[in-house]
Design a protein that fits this description.
CATH architecture of the largest domain: Sandwich
Number of helices: 6
CATH superfamily of the largest domain: Galactose-binding domain-like
Number of strands: 14
Order of helices and strands: HHHHHHEEEEEEEEEEEEEE
Distance between the termini: 5 Å
Mean pLDDT: 83
Radius of gyration: 22 Å
Strand content: 25-35%
Helix content: 10-25%
Largest sheet: 7 strands, antiparallel
Structural class: alpha+beta
Shape: globular
CATH topology of the largest domain: Jelly Rolls
């Protein structure tokens, strides 16, 4: 997730054509910044390599503030634990280091998608390497996934507090049966440890601090494929007010063991865009 996108803007510049004629370097920096406001972050970073003027224009605070969700201060405060630190940071630094890894704003609606790492979850038995391990992988936005070898009791719980823009949202777990790797440049998936998921379904649950609840059940299928399992929907109708979420997946029938499961994380996105989550 997110692979192939770089927010680096370092490169060599070519400010003019070397023959005395006007070049791109003669365009006023303020005009370039206004243009960049209308582009997506990867496009801004590509144009920042054109020349020094474009590079300076691409770092303007108002350019990157237009890419930040309305609740970015709330998000940054959650990351830092205090709100006075972000006052000394550029908007580009806030976006690149603390917003981009876990959130994307959907222009022009202003709504937001959140991406949650498996390391943010409370996973039963996660500290016992007989059962779980964190496996590095380029297939995750977070560069690692939680991998279950075998266990009788599987329970994963996530909690979040966030100022969502008003709207309807859907939460998904991103899961895969089997452990993928590369051999001679080709993707292969080891499914030797996959078992137990076809006996009983996994139960997904979601609740909010405003009393909304939903649950669903699903058998885990498609070994070797990343699949988004829908947990439930919730509605935000109170602007500028934090919503607390608690969500989980569980298969706690102890009559059989389960194994071979990769947990990348969870995605929260506007319901109207939920059919596009495979793009993230």
């Amino acid at each position: 997730m997110g692979a192939g996108i770089s927010l680096s803007t370092s490169n060599k510049y070519d400010d003019d054509d070397g023959d005395g004629r006007p070049g791109l370097g003669d365009i006023p920096e303020s005009c370039i910044s206004r243009l960049l406001m209308n582009l997506d972050p990867p496009e801004i970073c590509q144009l920042a390599r054109v020349n020094r003027t474009f590079h300076r224009a691409s770092s303007a605070d108002f350019v990157w503030e237009s890419k930040l969700p309305q609740s970015y201060k709330f998000l940054a405060t959650k990351v830092f634990g205090q709100d006075n630190i972000i006052a000394s940071m550029t908007k580009k630094d806030i976006y690149t280091n603390y917003v981009y890894p876990i959130a994307s704003m959907l222009a022009p609606s202003g709504q937001i998608c959140l991406f949650l790492s498996s390391k943010s979850f409370n996973i039963t038995g996660i500290d016992d390497r007989r059962y779980w391990n964190y496996i590095p992988t380029e297939e995750s936005r977070f560069k690692s996934v939680a991998y279950l070898q075998q266990m009788w009791w599987v329970e994963v719980v996530g909690e979040l507090e966030f100022e969502f823009p008003v709207g309807s949202y859907t939460l998904f777990f991103r899961l895969q049966l089997g452990m993928a790797s590369k051999r001679k440049g080709r993707r292969v998936c080891n499914v030797d440890q996959v078992h137990g998921w076809d006996i009983k379904p996994v139960r997904f649950q979601l609740s909010t601090s405003h009393g909304q609840r939903s649950h669903s059940e699903s058998y885990l299928t498609g070994p070797g494929e990343w699949i988004h399992y829908r947990v439930g929907d919730f509605i935000v109708d109170r602007p500028n007010e934090p919503t607390k979420l608690k969500f989980s997946l569980a298969q706690i029938d102890c009559t059989h063991t389960k194994g071979g499961l990769c947990i990348d994380g969870a995605i929260i996105c506007p319901t109207q865009f939920s059919h596009k989550i495979l793009l993230f």
